[in-house]
Amino acid sequence: MNHAVQEIKALKKKKRSDEALQLLKRIASQVLPIMRKRGWKVQHLCEFYPNNPNLLGLNINHGFKINIRLRPHYDDTVFLDYNDLLGTMLHELVHIVRGPHDATFYKILDELSDELDQLILTGQKGYSAFDGVGHKLGGHTGLPLSTLDVKNRALAAAEQRRQVQRVMLPTGGVRLGGSTSNQLEKSLTPKEMAARAAERRLRDQKWCGGLQQEESTGDNEKAVIVLDDDTTHSGRKRARDQDDDQGTLTKRHQSTWICALCTFENQELVLACAMCLSERTNAAYTTDNNNNSWACPQCTLLNSMDTTTCDACNYNKA
């Protein structure tokens, strides 16, 4: 069977786990047409509740597993706003084809946002995201979602995404990567463009775990909602094979950051030091393995190694 999402996992020991399951199904249903158009597959869509309060989403092995935080770190009995959750899902889907938060990544993300808006306006939706029945082991199936409710929430999500994107743009709300990007290029200097792009990357780095090859989020308690067991094992094998094929390339080009407390060299997408467990701060700076550039810890712009001051924000690493 050709499923966009093979399996859903919700946190069994958390309160309102049934609602969490329905929320995950709603999110997956909303983005189903986008996934099918591109042939994207997600083996496991999971709720997670990581120890890091800033971590909202994580993509493991190019879509083999996507983790979404549904509950705020300060209260695990309530859910985050649906608009924010939908935005997180779109963001993590982009990591299926693009790892770093760069211009290519945001171009794809903007395309997905535009496409989702059009799907909402034309009334298209994806309620058969799983082409099967999702249920909690030992439980009962949930009631179908309200079409009007999903559409209203999705419309609100589209408007909220627009408001967030306007924060980093000049008056008038021109969007990076959109149809009016030429206007933006004319209104900003190259340095201002670099600074705004760096600001967007910095904001996303705070909450997105990016593309990871394995999971280390500090939360393992899950209730499994199996939708298709037949393809699960083969899917895992394909993900492992894909990981092996890209292993050499990943190690060759992967950037790192230096812990300000213990000086241990960590992988770029890790948010806490693997040696001393201290959280990544602005005092840490990033380099690439080829020693061609360093990433500013304040705005994340890649600068030449022969400079000590960031070209975008004037941060001095010396």
From TrEMBL:
Any single GO CC term annotated in Swiss-Prot or TrEMBL for this entry: nucleus
Keyword list, A-Z: Metal-binding, Zinc, Zinc-finger
Record bears the keyword Zinc: yes
GO terms for MF: metallopeptidase activity; zinc ion binding
Protein name: WLM domain-containing protein
SUPFAM superfamilies reported in the protein's UniProt record: Ran binding protein zinc finger-like
GO terms (BP aspect): DNA repair
Span of domain WLM: 1-203
InterPro entries tied to this protein: WLM_dom, WSS1-like_metalloprotease, Znf_RanBP2, Znf_RanBP2_sf
Superkingdom as given in the UniProt entry: Eukaryota
Residues annotated as domain RanBP2-type: 290-318
Pfam families: WLM
SMART domains in UniProt: ZnF_RBZ (SM00547)
